[in-house]
Amino acid sequence: MEKPVIEPQQGPAPEDLVIVDLIEGEGAEAQPGGMVEVHYVGVDFETGEQFDSSWDRGQTIEFPLAGLIAGWQEGIPGMKVGGRRQLTIPPEAAYGPAGGGHPLSGRTLVFVIDLVGTK
């Protein structure tokens, strides 16, 4: 797999989490609160500007879903290893409303996540 390119988003930002499977995986299924190994790219919905990418660091990252933003906790379970999923996450399910102290507070985020492994 290659690093995904996230096309500019059209229209107003959604108010709820939007989950779109770009590639359906064939492997084990990610479980709520489980450990996942992923490659991902994250961009700002409005500007299309990338703010984070495991691809640019050249390695996947592994973490427990329970420790992640709500949009990932809700959006990754059910994915299968080998799959690629796009999540569009409103601020309430990401880093909270504007002024919340995080650089991404108040922003709608778009992630493309490749599920490499799960435990």
TrEMBL record:
Name the reaction it catalyses. Answer: [protein]-peptidylproline (omega=180) = [protein]-peptidylproline (omega=0)
Residue stretches making up the PPIase FKBP-type domain: 33-119
Q: Which SUPFAM superfamilies match?
A: FKBP-like
Alphabetic keyword roster: Isomerase, Rotamase
Q: What is its EC number?
A: 5.2.1.8
Recorded hits in PROSITE patterns, A to Z, give:
FKBP_PPIASE (PS50059)
- Which molecular function terms from Gene Ontology are attached? peptidyl-prolyl cis-trans isomerase activity
Transmembrane parts of this sequence: none
* Any matching Pfam family: FKBP_C
Instruction: Identify which top EC class this enzyme belongs to.
Output: isomerase
Top-level taxon in the UniProt lineage: Bacteria
Q: Which InterPro entries match?
A: PPIase_dom_sf, PPIase_FKBP_dom
Q: Which family does it belong to?
A: Belongs to the FKBP-type PPIase family.
* Name this polypeptide is given: Peptidyl-prolyl cis-trans isomerase
State the organism of origin. Corynebacterium kalinowskii
Classification lineage: Bacteria, Bacillati, Actinomycetota, Actinomycetes, Mycobacteriales
What is the gene name? Answer: fkbP
